[in-house]
Request: fold
Amino acid sequence: MAMGLSVDEVDFLLAANVRGVFLTANEGAKRLDKAGSRETQHGRIVLIGSITAEKVFPATSVYGATKAAVRHLGKALAREWARRGISVNVIQPGYFESEMTAELFESDVGATMVKSFPRQRLRPPSDLHAPLLLLCSDAARGITGSVITVDDGQTL
Reply:
């Protein structure tokens, strides 16, 4: 087990980031089916992953594993639900300015992390708006099973 995490914390991460994402996507797919996604081909589901699914950062072992599961889940559901007229894609954000990351990036460790990023900065969550709008629009009719990384180069 990852150092510093209790079994309850691991269970919480798995429940929130894997089970919760699956159950929410599944409910969304049922609603899209009812709305006629098979006929209209307008079903869109976008899962939010993380760059920790592909790049190892300090103290993110279990969190990153759950986000790798989200990445895989998005690709698998895209294949399974394609004939239902539902596109499933994943956005993998990098580290952003947020309530969740504020304490980290105010610390010396966080400042060192930011200095290691190619652009040495954090971006606002609004950087996710454009890819989210694209994936939910008719312009994304031919996009399914894709993973879009929005990290300002943090994984480079």
Q: What stands out?
A: The mean pLDDT is 95.
